[in-house]
Specification:
With about 325 residues, the protein is of the alpha/beta class. The protein has helices at about 5-15, 30-40, 65-75, 95-100, 105-115, 135-150, 175-180, 205-220, 250-255, 285-300, 315-325, and strands at about 20-25, 45-55, 60, 80-85, 125, 155-160, 185-190, 225-230, 230-235, 240-245, 260-265, 270-275, 280-285, 305-310. Helix 2 (about 30-40) links the parallel strand 1 and strand 2. Helix 5 (about 105-115) packs parallel to helix 6 (about 135-150) and helix 10 packs parallel to helix 11. The protein is globular and about 55 Å long. The two termini are about 30 Å apart. The model has no long low-confidence stretch (mean pLDDT about 95).
Length: about 325
């Protein structure tokens, strides 16, 4: 192990169990995640600021939320700076292709990453989604160089990877290689059914279990964080699918007089409602379904959980986390 970790990184490494929250804003003046960090900060070990978007030339656009960073440092929550390829609509494979295409462009990109890092952080969080099969090996060499550069500075390399149950799902991600290189790994066990597809569970229990079983074959379980969604989707055939934060579900249910149903197979709640002539289907995570999923941390001896995203959840969700994980 590294003996020259920064104090922030060392404090995080010393924690047996991590509760990580993703910090992101959906629109200008979206303070929900900031409120959660202030109110629940004592329960959060680490947060990842969804800060920088990758460009084809290996540079990044975006910014760190300085106010959040300052507050987190004061309350002892370790900050990670997140680098992603989300362009506002999709995770864009194009900048990944150009950056991963040569060793020189990889090095150039890493140099830009390092220049953007503030002093007080614990490390970097890589959320490059949609890595294509042909870039499987270049992606590993990119992570290897990034790891060396970060470890030299006493910083952690952490990553988010897709949930997969078979090798050919998300073939751009070599789980064994990633497991060897990264200090902590979020398994994104959510969006089993996503906004662009047909309605269904956000993270049914059988699907989550299969994804976990696959992951722990290749990745040390003490480095794995289980992705916990704090939201649902509202699908209908006449308008785009919308994301509904867990905290907004009760209001939607009462507004639409819906009757909440429970899927024993998925271990997740859902309901239907009508708006005019359009039938809406909503699947979502609630405190009960989340509580059941938190049990996996113990049974699989995982490092902890990663919540997408801060500001979507309810107070009762945090109570369940405290009861289940923070005893």
């Amino acid at each position: 192990m590294n003996s020259n970790w920064t104090p922030t990184a060392q404090r995080l490494i010393n924690k047996r169990q991590w509760i990580l929250g993703y910090y992101s804003e959906d629109y200008e003046g979206d303070f929900r995640a900031l409120e959660t960090l202030r109110q629940q900060g004592s329960h959060l070990d680490v947060y990842a600021d969804f800060a920088y978007q990758l460009q084809p030339d290996g540079r990044f656009i975006g910014q760190i939320n300085k106010q959040v960073l300052q507050g987190a440092i004061e309350q002892g929550t370790a900050p990670l700076i997140l680098f992603h390829n989300f362009n506002g609509k999709i995770f864009d494979p194009l900048p990944l292709r150009s950056v991963l295409s040569s060793t020189a462009s990889q090095r150039n990109c890493i140099r830009h990453m390092i220049n953007l890092l503030p002093q007080t952080i614990a490390g970097v969080h890589v959320d490059f989604e949609g890595v294509e099969a042909s870039y499987r090996i270049p992606f590993l060499s990119f992570l290897e160089s990034l790891k060396a550069t970060l470890h030299d500075r006493g910083l952690l390399l952490t990553i988010a990877i897709p949930a997969k149950r078979l090798e050919w799902e998300a073939p751009g991600y070599d789980f064994a290689g990633i497991g060897r290189l990264c200090d902590s790994i979020t398994l994104m066990t959510y969006d089993e059914h996503y906004s662009g597809g047909s309605p269904g569970p956000i993270s049914s229990l059988p699907w989550m279990t299969q994804a976990l079983d696959y992951a722990i074959r290749y990745i040390p379980n003490e480095n794995l964080l289980l992705g916990i969604p704090a939201y649902g989707y509202d699908w209908s055939n006449d308008e785009p699918t919308s994301l509904v934060p867990m905290r907004d579900i009760p209001e939607l249910v009462s507004q639409t007089n819906a009757r909440v149903l429970w899927s024993d197979q998925a271990v997740e709640p859902y309901f239907y409602y009508w708006r005019g002539r359009a039938r809406h289907t909503v699947w979502y995570e609630n405190e009960l379904s989340a509580k059941i999923r938190l049990g996996f941390v113990k049974s699989y001896r995982l490092r902890g959980i990663a919540i997408w995203r801060l500001g979507y959840e309810t107070t009762r969700f945090w109570q369940e986390i405290t009861l289940k994980l923070k005893r």
